[in-house]
Amino acid sequence: MTIPDKTQVLIVGGGPAGLLLAQLLHREGVDTVVLERRARDYVLSRIRAGVLEQGTVDLLRRAGVASRLDREGLLHTGVEIAFHDERLRIDLDDLTGGRSVTVYGQTEVTADLYAARDAMNGVVVHEAEDVALHDVDGSSPYATFRKDGTTHRIDCAFIAGCDGFHGVARATIPADILKTYELVYPFGWLGVLSDVPPVHDELIYAGHENGFALCSMRSLTRSRYYIQCSLDEKAEDWSDDRFWAALAAHLPRDVAARLTTGPSIEKSIAPLRSFVVEPMRHGRLFLAGDAAHIVPPTGAKGLNLAASDIHYLSEALVAHFTRQDDKGLETYSARALARVWKAERFSWWMTTALHRFPEKGAFGARLQQAEFDYLASSRAAQQSLAENYVGLPF
Ligand code: APR
Ligand code: PHB
Asked: Which end of the chain has the smaller Cβ count within 10 Å, N or C?
């Protein structure tokens, strides 16, 4: 591959955010280069959440990358919230006037985006090492990096920092300009992927005195389960039998009785945090996706927030290059953060309502029971959960 020495938009990060931005801009004639630290196989080996909001599905269709999603994605018009042995179906379709979610693994979204980059001869530089961003608050930003031992420089008009929570873009913004908001939860999720049929045809988010559990899926033959675990747990200390027994003890009895167990094909522990930086722009550098914010996976918002950021940013960049209109660039950070914070609130609410917090004592446990009882008795409460789960408007 020939690595160009200039482009219009330099995108750091070849995950969902960076690839979707490249695809949307390319379709509008805006030139991009994506710099990705890892090999493609590594990126595609990551196991991530798989619930797409209606707005995300619509955006992927507009990007021309949704044909497999439309064939293989599972349309879910409802989701279950359980608390101890009580189960409550949230009828998303009825409560939101016809909106739903689609279950389709993020890995598949990323694979579809890479296939689209290849089909359009999009430039993605894998194993780009030591990416550094320069003059981002000046008029001529550029990136330097090493590839196969050679140092490269790419000059550009704008840089999109789509390099995730551990990337370089956010770190490029001076500390005295960036405001960071963070809440770290005192537990993690132990997740298992297994080629067994899902226990239920919709997702089940379960609060229990033993801890939170989530019954999800990748297809009708591949299940994804999570249980709340302490942060000092290690995945290698969990045999499959130990996991299946613990999962059953975190679920309503009638659900546990129907579990199909089998060998795990992936087992990992992830910490939970809520995290936002402000602003999401510094000069000609724009942050999007996990580079700017993290949500606990309880609300399935991570990928969907990356999508809405990219919706705003791609529209703004296209307006700049095709109509010399910079209003979208000037309002990007405020517009993106308005939606980010609403999703942070919902993800925090789902997490605090359903996870076990021993430090909150008996009063905290009774408040969680009251939260569930109110949800079960109030259409307004169910409507609030439903409109957030299917996704607030972009
Ligand atoms: N240089 C180049 N690439 C980098 C660098 C760097 N310094 N640091 C990180 N990257 C790459 C990572 O290897 C990764 O492929 O940036 C990409 C960031 O992708 P994600 O972490 O998936 O973030 P994003 O594209 O914003 O997608 C958000 O991913 O993490 C999940 O739950 C999250 O669903 C959400 C979604
Ligand atoms: C998943 O399938 O991995 C998943 C689904 C919903 C969530 C989190 C994870 O809220």
From this structure: N
Instruction: Note the pLDDT tens digit of each residue in 239-295.
Output: 999 999 999 999 999 999 999 999 999 999 999 999 999 999 999 999 999 999 999
Give the closest residue (by CA) to ligand 2 atom 7. 300
Specify whether the CB–CB gap between 51 and 196 falls below 8 A.
Answer: no
On whether both 235 and 379 belong to a single domain, the answer is yes
Closest CA to 251 of 199, 183, 303, 181: 199
What is the β-pairing status of strands 285-287 and 281-282?
antiparallel
Domain match, 331 and 214 both? no
**Could you tell me if 81 and 375 are in contact, meaning their C-beta atoms sit under 8 angstroms apart?**
yes
Q: Whose CA is nearest to atom 1 of ligand 2?
A: 49
User: Are 284 and 133 contacting, i.e. CB atoms less than 8 angstroms apart?
Assistant: no
Residue 107's domain comprises 9-76+98-181+273-350
For ligand 2, whether the C-beta of 302 sits within 6 Å is: no
Would the CB of 223 count as within 6 Å of ligand 2? no
Sheet of 281-282: strand order equals 123-125, 32-35, 9-12, 158-161, 285-287, 281-282
How far is Cα 52 from Cα 104, in angstroms, rounded to an integer? 7
Q: Length of the chain, please?
A: 394
Q: Is 193 in the same domain as 171?
A: no
Q: What is the spatial distance between Cα 9 and Cα 6, in angstroms, rounded to a whole number? A: 9
Residue minimizing CA distance to atom 9 of ligand 2: 49
Helices 16-26, 302-323: crossing angle, 10 deg rounding: 30
Provide the H-helix boundaries in 63-105: 67-72, 92-95
Ligand nearest, relative to CA of residue 80: 2
376 Cα distance to chain centroid: 28
| Confidence (pTM) | 0.97
Do both 53 and 176 map to the same domain?
yes
Q: Does 278 lie in the same domain as 254?
A: no
